[in-house]
Amino acid sequence: MEAPDDRKYSKEHEWVVLHDDGTALVGISDFAQNQLGDVVFVELPKVGAALAQFDQMGEIESVKAVSDLYTPVGGEVVEVNADVVNKPETVNEDPYGKGWLIKVRMDNAAELDNLMDAAQYAALTA
Amino acid sequence: MADALLQTPLHAEHVRLGGRMVPFAGWEMPIQFGGGILAEARAVRSDAGLFDVSHMARLRVSGGDARALLDWTHTADIGEAMPVGRARYGLFCNERGGIIDDGIVYRLGEEEFLAVANAANAAKVRAWLERRRNERFPGVSVEDLTAQVAMIALQGPHAMEMLAAATGSAEPPRPFRVAEMRVGGAAAWVARTGYTGEDGVEIMPRAEDAAALWRSFAEAGAEACGLGARDVLRLEAGLLLHGSDMDESVNPVEAGLERFVNLGSDFCGAEVVRRAAEEGAERRLTGFKTRQRGAVPRPHSPLVAGGERVGEVTSGGYSPTLDTTIGLGYLPARFGAPGAPIQVDVRGKVIEAETVPLPFYTRSRSG
User: Fold this and answer.
1) Would you tell me how many other CB atoms lie within 10 Å of the CB of residue B336?
2) pLDDT value at B156 more than 90
3) Across the interface, do A66 and B298 touch by the CB < 8 Å criterion?
4) CATH top-level class for B57-144?
5) What pLDDT, on the 0 to 100 scale, is given for residue B2?
6) Distance, in angstroms, between A122 CA and closest chain B CA?
7) Which CATH code is given to the segment(s) B282-356?
8) Which helix (H) or strand (E) holds A106?
9) In this predicted structure, what is the pLDDT of residue A2?
10) Which of residues 90-129 of B touch A (CB under 8 A)?
11) For residue B188, which of A60, A94, B112, B205 is within the disulfide window of CB 3.0 to 4.6 Å?
12) A64 chain-B contacts, CB cut-off 8 A
């Protein structure tokens, strides 16, 4: 499974990529979308919600099963991806791009150290 | 070894095609292949799909009183007048009218029938037939052909063209008929039946011929489909799943299946079912669809009306054909008219829905 090396990964199969403006984009990995199968429903937190690292942040539901989503980093939710709410299959089609889930203003960039890099994550999901 | 999963004669084909294998009713079966459940379901609606249904039980019931035994144990009219080559869907009911299983009975010969039961109920149906046989018709043979005979469903608007290419354009059986044919050079029973709401056939070759037949249809372009797509398609077509939508605690009238019951005959459970048909059922299996896409109603999600719990979901899912979420559940009879507003409680999320007539999807019969 593909795992780009520009971002960090959690054991719960979420990824995060930190931007220069201090915001971080969060999504689920290609491995996760493939395991889930066809995604038919995504529930995301509200803009403004304050999340701590590894908090449950929503739900993702495939044809066969429902799973909780956990944020890999803490902070304030500054944007949620309306496209995946309206077209959940976007998560399957482009998990690292158009299928991102939320944008977070991180409280503590050091939280990234609690996550795996692409090579470690690839080893976990091999 | 008690927990070892059974494998169908097509197991190696599924693995070769990247099937995601899961345990199902004691069998190791593909839930989906590489393209995913919804793509497989769409292929069946628009083109043709291929399903391994060899895990279902094939029971040969034969001998002088075979017809009488089946007429007694199955709700369909397996009467003297049922011609050889005919297939009938119906239910196996207990003495209280509870549904032990549903299934199709095929008349293969004057004294030879095939009853197809769900994998999860195979042992129960076989034991039931044997018990009833011992009570009244000791001369009848009940033989389990599940291991010797495979079963492949070829379903979709292009299924019959693909069948014709494999049979040298021999005349196929008409709907709800079965015939012995040569398919791709192998002898098979070919039944014009299925569980998808599309035209198509269920082909029963000998186990050793199954893999070559499967491969030839896959190479001809039929999409390999798993149990996930099968469940999506059967729900869209309003076809019930035993163990979810019906079981021994409900009778055929409650399940909305009285059209598959020969009320004039003396089948097992007939008194209870006749009374239910005359008096009407207090609860009925009812279809609903949600007003917008959202969380998916799952079995046991509460159904709510006027702030009160009125039932629960037995089957639910996203329908790719209708692009909405649909489901089934038992509701009081007053919800029988389509358009009644209800709510589904999915993990605390309240989803607005309304009752709708079944089936949710009907194929167009043009052409």
Assistant:
1) 16
2) yes
3) yes
4) alpha beta
5) 52
6) 20
7) 2.40.30.110
8) strand A102-106
9) 81
10) none
11) B205
12) 31, 37, 228
What does the DSSP 8-state code read for residue B81? T
Is A78 part of the contact surface with chain B (CB cutoff 8 Å)? no
Q: Search chain A and give the residue with CA nearest B229.
A: A63
Cis bond before residue B175 (omega within 30° of 0):
no
Site from A33, A34, A35, A64 to mutate, B interface, most B CB atoms within 10 angstroms = A64
Q: Report pLDDT digits (tens) over B85-140.
A: 999 999 999 999 999 999 999 999 999 999 999 999 999 999 999 999 999 999 99
Tell me which fold the domain B11-55+148-236 belongs to.
Gyrase A; domain 2 (3.30.1360)
ipTM comes to: 0.90
A40 vs B232: CB contact, 8 Å cut-off? no
Look at A38 and B36 and tell me if their CB atoms are within 8 Å.
yes
Count other C-beta atoms under 10 Å from residue B326's C-beta: 27
A36-79 tens-digit pLDDT = 999 999 999 999 999 999 999 999 999 989 999 999 999 999 99
Smallest CA-to-CA distance from A59 within A101, A99, A96 is with A101
Q: Could you give the domains of chain A? A: 15-108 (2.40.50.100)
For residue range B169-225, what is the model confidence (pLDDT) as tens digits? 899 999 999 999 999 999 999 999 999 999 999 999 999 999 999 999 999 999 999
**Rounded Cα distance, A92 and A84, in Å:** 10
Preceding peptide of B302 cis, ω within 30°: no
- B254: helix, strand or coil: coil
- Each domain of chain B, given as residue ranges in start order, spans 11-55+148-236, 57-144, 282-356
B367, pLDDT greater than 70: no
- Are B55 and B118 in contact by the 8 Å Cβ rule? The answer is no
- From chain B, pick out residues whose CB is under 8 angstroms from the CB of A43: 295, 349
CB count within 10 Å of CB A74 equals 18
